[in-house]
UniProtKB/TrEMBL annotation:
PANTHER family: HTH-TYPE TRANSCRIPTIONAL ACTIVATOR RHAS, HTH-TYPE TRANSCRIPTIONAL ACTIVATOR RHAS-RELATED. It holds the Pfam family HTH_18. The gene is mtrA_1. This is AraC family transcription regulator. GO terms for molecular function: DNA-binding transcription factor activity; sequence-specific DNA binding. Keywords: DNA-binding, Transcription, Transcription regulation. InterPro entries: AraC_lig, AraC_XylS_family_regulators, Homeodomain-like_sf, HTH_AraC, HTH_AraC-typ_CS, Tscrpt_reg_AraC-type_HTH. Residues 201-299 form the HTH araC/xylS-type domain. It comes from Neisseria zoodegmatis.
Length: 307
């Protein structure tokens, strides 16, 4: 089982690459914080400056850079290093499947695609990532994908919306892969961090593959060949919860996927992920998600019908 594939599935990612930017002369764009969404900025030409709320550092962005905010923090991208030219906001128009943002007509240009992502509110994968992920796309599969985005933006072929929206999911996985393949990376305490720990990888992978199993501490100990005390300590240090809480969390995330994607009864969903009764499942689900399984399913169906 591939850890990234599984965590992407549990995250229930949806997205769209819906904004293209062409900026010249003086320009300024501001993104307000939104913790329930993620955004990626893909620089395909030129350069600009990035100022993130709460940070002193000003970052130079240039062609080939991709900046991803897993849970959007407020930030500015600007032609000025001070990032203070708020009156230079761009105009916009609809251009095929993209909202085209434009500013200026002469001088060096910054060309950029922007992708917006939404996830399940308890997406473990997203919580494992730092506030900002900054990667280069040179010599990676990201480069080929961006080439396809450019083609769709320029040619306006039939079915472009379907192609572009499908590319958004691929884009996010490639972003994750590129970042995780870097030698220098930050991974917060959570499932992904546990998987990277050599003593925990086996049990994390086993639980992800079969969360419905009646996992006991002894079962987990036998998978990774450590003492009970070591197992408890490693889980707290690397994943942030007890082994029992980890199993329950994965079960609930799997149940959330089934509630959205299947027509199975709530009882069937509960039993399929390892809970012994609908009542117990409902209580545990509401504690983690803040709403009942039935309301979660209803909310998901409403969102799909509104798209």
């Amino acid at each position: 089982m591939d850890i990234l594939d599984k965590l992407v599935e549990l995250a229930q990612i949806t997205g769209s690459v819906n904004v293209q930017c062409r900026f010249q002369e003086n320009w300024y764009v501001r993104q307000e914080p939104k913790r329930t969404q993620g955004v990626a900025h893909i620089i395909t030409g030129g350069e600009g400056y990035l100022k993130i709320d709460g940070e002193e550092e000003i970052r130079l962005l240039k062609a080939g850079d991709v900046v991803f905010f897993p849970r959007i923090v407020g930030h500015v991208i600007s032609s000025r290093e001070a990032c203070d030219n708020v009156d230079d906001a761009p105009d916009w128009e609809q251009s095929g499947v993209f909202t085209l943002k434009k500013r200026g007509a002469q001088g060096k240009a910054l060309n950029m695609f922007c992708a917006l992502f939404e996830y399940d509110r308890k997406a473990d994968l997203i919580d494992s990532l730092p506030e900002t992920v900054h990667v280069g796309m040179a010599h990676t599969a990201l480069d080929s994908l961006v080439g396809m985005l450019k083609y769709e933006a320029e040619q306006a072929e039939k079915g472009s919306a379907t192609v572009v929206n499908a590319l958004s999911s691929v884009l996010l996985v490639l972003l994750m892969r590129t970042y995780l393949n870097q030698e220098e990376k930050t991974i917060h305490i959570g499932t992904l961090n546990g998987w990277y720990h050599p003593r925990l990888r086996g049990v994390v992978q086993a639980v992800l593959a079969a969360p419905e199993k009646a996992w006991s501490i002894q079962d987990m100990v036998s998978v990774v060949n450590v003492s009970r005390a070591q197992l408890m300590r490693l889980f707290k240090q690397q994943i942030g919860v007890s082994p029992h809480a980890f199993v329950n969390s994965i079960r609930l995330q799997q149940a959330a996927v089934l509630l959205k994607r299947s027509a199975d009864s709530i009882l069937s969903v509960a039993l399929s992920v390892g809970f012994q009764s609908e009542t117990h499942f409902g209580k545990v689900f509401k504690k983690q998600y803040g709403i009942s399984p039935g309301q979660y399913r209803k909310d998901g169906n409403q969102l799909e019908s509104e798209v």
